[in-house]
Amino acid sequence: MRLCLASVAREQTRQDSWRAIEIIANTHNRRVESYLQRRRHRPWRNRGS
Questions:
Q1: DSSP characters for 15-33?
Q2: How many CA atoms does the CB half-sphere of 30 hold within 13 Å?
Q3: Given this model, what pLDDT does residue 42 score?
Q4: C-alpha torsion 21→13→16→32, nearest 10
Q5: Can you give the residue range of the structural domain that contains 16?
Q6: Among 5-9, 29-33, 42-46, which range has the highest average pLDDT?
């Protein structure tokens, strides 16, 4: 992944590459946040009750 991102960043202009990195990071962070929220809210409250 890092090698591909590095090559793409070199080929593209800095603005475009940074935009792509920001978009990827944002989507990844949203996935992680939703995953953590699901794991936090569901397991022990449902099992405890």
A1: HHHHHHHHHHHHHHHHHHH
A2: 5
A3: 61
A4: 0
A5: 1-40
A6: 29-33
Which residue type does 11 have?
E
Q: Establish if 45 belongs to a structural domain.
A: no
Domains held by the chain: number: 1
Look at the chain and count its residues.
Answer: 49
CA atoms within 13 A on the CB side of 43: 6
**17 and 9 in contact (C-beta within 8 Å)?**
yes
The answer to the question of residue 9 being in a domain is yes
- In angstroms, the CA 41 to CA 1 distance is 32
* pLDDT value, residue 14: 74
